[in-house]
């Protein structure tokens, strides 16, 4: 049976110049969802609402089958979050911060903490506020993992992080997912993270979810076809995303459907290329 670890319905937040939602969003247990969108599309706002750091204007957020507004403290004990939450504690050293945070989480794993501090070469004596941008992300990431959460909410965890540590983060996230019971929501501009870690992709544009899909479905359906000519029917077909001239080619989001249609219209296919994930996302954002 498929169970949802996160179930969000009709979530809205209005600022003077920006509105998020209404958003419906689900995360199945044991899966990783990438949240992708251009700058300012609302990803951080969405995370801050899920963490109850921001008050929503409407809708409901259920995590682990519990309402966030009723059971915030219990829920948060099993959620790990990376998203600039530690800035108010800039005057504390990493070590002092770890004492504070470990006290709050009953499931804190001190051995794991020591391992990760060494793995990411963190100087525990340094004040958090004096850490570099990438080091701050690594410290947040370590704290998020060390209480063994059932859900990780990661808002651009690798932004500013060196490539060696990025690789380690990916390894640690794959290990985290290994038992099939833990889930991730990951906002990122890093396509490799999406490819290597995520099962589902949700695209946010101007505060709205414009697409949600399973990553592996894409390869079968999205393609670019070089064709002999294009008919009126094809030009207006809902699965033809784009028609380009010289050489004549079209982009489709449903190759099997379009192949049948081309055959019916007597149009010859000269060549077919599957689209990369980057290209598909670009087309989706372009349509949105
Ligand atoms: N406190 C606030 N008051 C008013 N507007 C805000 C506030 N916080 C965020 N916004 C606006 O909400 C919109 C979404 O911002 P948000 O930070 O959620 O985007 P994002 O997708 O995370 O962007 P990025 O990819 O650049 O991190 C932006 O237009 C931003 O200016």
Automatic annotation (TrEMBL):
SMART domains: AAA. Pfam families: ABC_tran. One of its GO terms (molecular function) is ATP hydrolysis activity. SUPFAM superfamilies: P-loop containing nucleoside triphosphate hydrolases. Keywords: ATP-binding, Nucleotide-binding, Transport. PANTHER family: ABC TRANSPORTER ATP-BINDING PROTEIN ALBC-RELATED. This is ABC transporter domain-containing protein. The lineage of its organism: Bacteria, Bacillati, Bacillota, Bacilli, Bacillales.
